[in-house]
Design a protein that fits this description.
115 residues, mainly beta, seven-stranded mixed β-sheet, 0% helix, globular
Length: 115
């Protein structure tokens, strides 16, 4: 059974940095797509950053230049490095993976940006 487990969320001040991790239960080589979404209260879940191939990633306009998605294939882990965080970045962040046409989601990790 495929599982995605996020970690690294927490409280950070505006302008601060945070790195999220997503550990997959199997090899991330198998996933066609992997990345991150987020959902703020009262809003729809939205794409943050996603690998569309092993080396190519797409980013939401709102996070370009501030967030970086990366992967450690040997650790079956995908990361989201977030910097210059803004209050509007506060949300539950979800790891996402697509494998053989099936979508998988992590349980989510809360990111709070507040002074």
């Amino acid at each position: 059974q495929v599982q995605l487990v996020e970690s690294g969320g927490g409280l950070v001040q505006p302008g601060g940095s945070l790195t999220l991790s997503c550990a997959a239960s199997g090899s991330i080589y198998n996933f066609n797509v992997m990345g991150w979404y987020r959902q703020a209260p009262g809003k729809q879940r939205e794409l943050v950053a996603i690998f569309t191939s092993s080396t190519s990633a797409n980013y939401a306009d709102s996070v370009k230049g501030r967030f970086t998605v990366s992967r450690a294939n040997a650790k079956n882990t995908v990361y989201l490095q977030m910097s210059s965080l803004k209050p509007e970045d506060a949300a539950v962040y979800y790891c996402y993976g697509a494998l053989r046409g099936i979508s998988y989601w992590g349980q989510g990790t809360q990111v709070t940006v507040s002074s």
